[in-house]
Each structure stands twice: as structure tokens, then as C-alpha cells.
Amino acid sequence: MTDPIADMLTRIRNAQAVKQLEVLIPYSRVKFALGEILQQEGYVKKITKTNQGARQLVKIILSYNESGEPVIKSLRRISKPGKRVYRRREKLPWVLQGMGMAVMSTSRGLMTAKKARKAGLGGELLCEIW
Fold first, then answer.
1. Secondary structure (H, E, C), 23-60
2. Which of 12, 31, 50, 128 has its CA 20 to 30 A from that of 41?
3. pTM score, whole prediction
4. 115: domain range?
């Protein structure tokens, strides 16, 4: 697998398309940190690290509204292995004029673009979610 973050976003997108309540993803620290950001921002209900035999997995409980529609409308990978996208703090994006969020990899770890802007940090723009 050349792009594990894109794989994670695709698994979430596919699980929501068929209205699954949870999705299992192979564990990595970056994927777990991204899942924690999604949980903090209210896009998913819960994220846990589980073991299935010798494999470690990230279990994400997806969130839906009262009418059964997924809370996450769109997941888009920005920086890819073939084309990395970096932004300085002055050029951080506003996703849907603040209604969505961008996730960045900074020198202080993964964080939303809003938090990076407050901290005065730039970094690699991983994905946009709304």
C-alpha cells in the first residue's frame, strides 16, 4: 500500500456509503491521531485501538444524524505520496469558510488548520473534511 491515509479515508467513505456503524483499519500512529482529531471535532463517535490476533487495528464508530445521513459529507486527500502539499501559516486553507476542517502534519504532530493557525505553524496539508 503506497498511501495508508488515503486508504483510511476510502474505508471510512465506503463504510458510510453502505451505512455501517463501524470500520476497522490497520493501526498506525498517524491514522490513530487522525481518528482522534475526527472524534474531537465530532465527525465520528469513538475511536479505539483493538487487537485481532497478532494484528493491531483502529476501530472507528461512525456518526450519523437523526435522518440516517453520515455526519461526514466529504473526505478529500490533499497531499499525496507523488505530490506533497505544504502550506505556511499565512496560506492555511479555510474549508467551506470554516464549516469544514483541514488536517495538517506539523512539527508538533497532527492538528487542524485552525489550531495550526493559532499556534503559528505551517506544515503538510493531509486532508480536508466536511
1. EEEECCHHHHHHHHHHHHCCCEEEEEEEEECCEEEEEE
2. 50
3. 0.92
4. 75-129
